[in-house]
Specification:
Oligomer: single chain
Number of domains: 1
Number of strands: 8
Strand content: over 45%
Distance between the termini: 36 Å
Structural class: mainly beta
Largest sheet: 8 strands, antiparallel, barrel
CATH architecture: Beta Barrel
Radius of gyration: 16 Å
Order of helices and strands: HEEEEEHHEEE
Strand order of the largest sheet: 1-2-3-4-5-6-7-8
């Protein structure tokens, strides 16, 4: 499988770690103040046809001024390649309108910390955009948990208060 085709999906996955798909609908009102603060998100995507695995551990802080900052580790494995470990950072703006969470990433940075010698081949900075816009439906937001249904992909991602 062409790695160049996979990497844009990787960016969408990273950009909104709190976006998720679920058949559950929101049964409680959304309290915007519950979103403020730091969240820890973990997620794993497995693509059996290409034997690709993406594992993300990410922290994001939602500020009251509708900005957010995030950082974490992304592990990327593809059959026939060494496992790659990236550090990721992001600065975003966000809006919560009723049950829709929208984010606009202003500055996303990936750094290959496991095999920097492969960056000349992969060159994420040229493949992936520096900004990404994403939105999704908040399925659950409490003081301790956040679950969102993404418009971009269908895997369930849940975050807990950090």
């Amino acid at each position: 499988m062409n790695l160049v085709k996979i990497l844009p999906a990787l960016l969408l996955f990273y950009a909104i770690p709190s976006m998720a798909e679920s058949n559950v609908t929101n049964v409680s009102p959304i309290n915007k103040s519950n979103l403020y603060g730091s969240w820890f998100c973990q997620h794993k995507i497995e693509e059996p046809n290409s034997k690709m695995v993406i594992d993300v551990n990410y922290r994001i802080k939602y500020n009251q001024d509708n900005t957010s900052q995030g950082y974490g580790i992304l592990l990327f494995a593809l059959s026939g390649m060494p496992k790659l470990k990236y550090s990721i950072t992001d600065s975003s703006t966000w809006q919560l309108n009723e049950d829709t969470l929208s984010m606009s990433s202003q500055n996303i940075e990936f750094k290959n910390v496991s095999h920097p010698e492969l960056e000349s081949i992969l060159n994420l900075k040229k493949i992936l955009p520096a900004t990404v816009n994403e939105s999704g439906k908040v399925i659950h937001l409490s003081n301790d948990e956040l679950t969102v249904k993404s418009e971009a992909y269908s895997d369930l991602i849940q975050c807990v208060r950090a």
